[in-house]
Amino acid sequence: MSSLLPFSRTPRRLVRDSSVARRRRTAVAVTGALLSSLTGAVSLAQPAAAAAPALKGAGTCANIDMIYRPASAFPDTSRGRFDFRMQTNTIELAVLCLVNAERTTMRPLTRPIGLGKGTLTLGTAAARHAADAVALRWWGYVEPGKNCRPMKGNPTTCDPHINPETGSTPLSRAKAVGYGRWCTSFSVAENAYVGWGSASVTPRAAVTWWMNSKPHRDNILNPAFTVMYAKTALGSADPAAGSITPAVTYVQMFGSCS
């Protein structure tokens, strides 16, 4: 179970989902101002989505089968470099469309764009975490010599939401970009996904897998959230991918502020 805890000044005992397989889910939600957290179990293996139900937005959302390509696939021109950089924006819009198609009975999520030099958003936090995850490759199983923090309640799996070098968490990453600074109370949640092989790296594959994992689905369908950013990084955050390409890592962040 992964859910958003209501604000309270009384400490709560957090109950975690103990029935899920150890390599099937990764989701986390945190709230402010008390800023408690609840983490689901984790999967960083290549997901299998063949038997999953079709997404509601599959017939209407654009670019849902887009595959993130390396810079070498684009001309070494200003336009080619621009097109390479714009891939993550296109993928984010595809994810947002698919997510909102699932939220048929609640307000759609938005992704406000920071205006002006130095303006940061939860999207910045998500992008940084995805890039760090690919650079450090700590997701997946706990192994000898691997620098990661085991999941609470699942010591065989690394926690993808805690950067093992900086110790950053979804909450600290949100606060680092200023999220919640002007809120009476706020909440954030983070979903993570990594896939390798052409069928598993697309926005359709990521959202399908999230929607078929309860902690992720709970974040996606939480009516309290008002914003969502989904950032990608080329490469796998899980070394289990080996040299298989393409490989893409996704980090999805949700937020609400009141």
UniProtKB/TrEMBL annotation:
Location of the SCP domain: 165-227
Superkingdom per UniProt: Bacteria
Matching Gene3D superfamilies: CAP
Protein name: CAP domain-containing protein
